[in-house]
Amino acid sequence: MRRLALILFGALFVVLFVGFAIAQGFDETGVPEGDVALVEGVPDDVGQVSEKEFQRSMLQQAAAGGLKKLPKEGSSKFKELKDATLSEILNAIWIRGAAEEMGIKEAPSKKIADELEKIKEQNFPTPDAYKEFLVTSKLTQDEVDERVELQILSTEISDRLSKSAGIPSEDEIRQYYEENKEAQFTTKESRDVRIITNKDKDKVEAAKTALEADNSPAGWKAAATKYSSDPTTKAKGGLQPGLTEELLATAGPFKNAIFDSATNELVGPIKFQGNYTVIEVVKLNPEDVQTFEEAKNQISSALTQQKQESAVNDFVTSWQSKWRERTFCASGYEVESCSNFKGDGRPTGADPACYEADPKKEPTACPAPVTSTSPAIPGSVTRLQPQGERKPQGPMPPPAPEGAAGELPEGVETVPGE
Question: Which CATH number fits domain 187-289: 3.20.20.30, 3.40.50.720, 3.10.50.40, 3.20.10.10?
Fold first, then answer.
């Protein structure tokens, strides 16, 4: 009997709830009649988006986009504006909800006023310019104050997340230094070199003769101005500072001439890539390695920033997921921010013509049918960049015809007997 009573009570509760919803004008999503969206977990005066509020926001969104009037209802531009408007409204509600859950109180009026004054000083040269902005943007002063408060709340959320990220330990800093000592904290041995280059070998020979008589900076400047065909060397008296072997790895005879010659020795003419060059090494710069103590503050700052960015990114990911589950939109207003949004599997913003068999107008660009992954490039994952450097994965090459041998590089022959 007790079980039957519970079943009957449960059925009665459902009937009463449905009756209440109908009386209050709720649709199947639970959004009250006359509203376009409902966000749970925030006060009613914040979480309910009325049709009137939405229409006003849509006009403001159009004004911000430089539109003098709304696009034709039913057009793709109208839908784009409609979706952008509701997405912006919902994001503002989510930020206020997140701030409340984090214990961040509403900004006092004085703080809002002070922040607004800073904005005015940076963006509006005169009071009249600000008044004109209010008219053209279709914003009231109260609405501006709300947006300024939202900016303050966003900043406070970000600041709190940054503080929660903490600072790197001494061991983390030292490990990063050791892992990146060669790549980031070592300045390779290099040479400062004077160069004169020209396609005309006779001019380079003449330059060398002049320099044998006077290879002072003034002599080089005069010779470079007269004989060099390269604007850079002309402007700097032929000087090219800080040349390393790595920088000239593919320069062949040019690199050898620089790194095999003695200081103040004229070498050339050297032929390289259709030019003739005369060079003189004027200074040797030994390798320089920053010590851990010298690099410590720089590394600490970089790792701290990385921790803060990671904390914010993690928060945004979970924040969007959590608040999307709490958001319900009325029929005809569903956007990706709504839990009851049902997409068609097509990327947002994709031209509908991309999916039409016979479009009236050919689309200018269409998204790839399959989203490419972006794996980390091998060796690019570091403490400072834990996700690594991303590179979109390209398509697999077509398979070779059955029985066909792979092509060998030019000039390489197969070994007899293989």
Answer: 3.10.50.40
Max CA separation in the chain (angstroms): 119
Residue with tokens 């009851």: 340
Q: How many Cα atoms within 13 Å fall on the side-chain side of residue 163?
A: 6
b/e string for 248-272 if b means 16 or more Cβ within 10 A?
beeeeebbebbbebeeeebbbbbee
pLDDT digits over 18-27, tens only? 333 333 344 4
Query: For 49-91, what is each residue's pLDDT tens digit?
Result: 999 999 999 899 999 988 888 899 889 899 999 999 999 999 9
- Parse the chain into domains and list their residue ranges: 1-30, 33-185+294-342, 187-289
Are 185 and 176 in contact by the 8 Å Cβ rule? The answer is: no
Residues 6+ apart with CB under 8 A from 334: 340, 341, 342
Residue 295 has a CB neighbour count (10 Å cut-off) of 19
**Which residue type occupies 196?**
I
CB neighbours of residue 89 within 10 Å: 21
